[in-house]
Every structure is written in structure tokens, then in C-alpha cells.
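WARN no homologs supplied; continuing
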Amino acid sequence: MTEAESEKLTHVDAAGQARMVDVGGKIETERVARARGSIRMRPETLMAIRANQLEKGDVLAVARVAGILAAKRTAELIPLCHPIPLTDIRIDFHPDESLPGILSEAIARATWRTGVEMEALTAVSVALLTIYDMAKAIDPGMELADISLVEKSGGKLGNWSRG
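OK structure emitted
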């Protein structure tokens, strides 16, 4: 791998080895990232979740807390992520009869030297996995889908949006 190629891939050194990016020289700026995803399920499962009729309890409340906790622990889950002092993480759920299923969105914020995209993506992923865990007894065929970064702002590269 050439030096020019390794500069494009910030988590790879000139020898092609994985490395953690040194953010010590970067300035702190406000960073915001929004991610989304969905979980598809049987209509009966969606009805049970909305009516809070599952034996394990309030599925969306537990999934929200799980997503928040996951965002806070992203650096422990993704090897080359920096621990980031999040200032906010919000997770919303939108039941959607047309899927049928639940759409989830997470917004992560920090004033720091590196972005919060991984925290937002981790929050959405774990929130959706928690919904699966809590409802799998009645619907093991649920499917997680469309997990993606929607937009991000802050930092050297500025703003980006899926459009």
C-alpha cells in the first residue's frame, strides 16, 4: 500500500496495518450524527408491541435505554473507535404499519475531536436488536434492515447528508 493510499484510509498505516487515528491535534467542534434503521415483523407482533402486551415488558422503553447505553459504550464494541464524551443521544421509534414494523432513529452529539457517526449507528443497531430480543418468542422471523447514516455535521470534512 502506498503512502497516498494509506492517507485515504485513516485507520490503516503505510504498511497496511490497522491503527487508531491520532486525534490529539484536531480541534474540538460540535459533532452531530443521525442514523436510522428498521425492524420488520408480523402485523400481530407490531400490535403486541404497541399495546405493551409482551411478557418481557415495555419493548420500546427497554430498547431506547439499550440504544443509549450502547452509544455510550461504542468504543468498547468497535475496536478502533475513540471513547467520546457524548453530550446527547436521542432515540426515537416510529411504528409503521406499511412495513409492518418499527423505524428507529438515533441522534448523537458531542463537542469533540472526532465524529459521532459510529455512536449513532451503534445506538440504532442495538435498539433494534433489543426489540428483536424482546419479541423473538412470538416472532423469530423479524428482520433488521436499512441501518445507515443519514447525516453528519462538524469536523474537518464538514456536513454530509444522504440526500
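The longest strand covers residues 29-40.
OK
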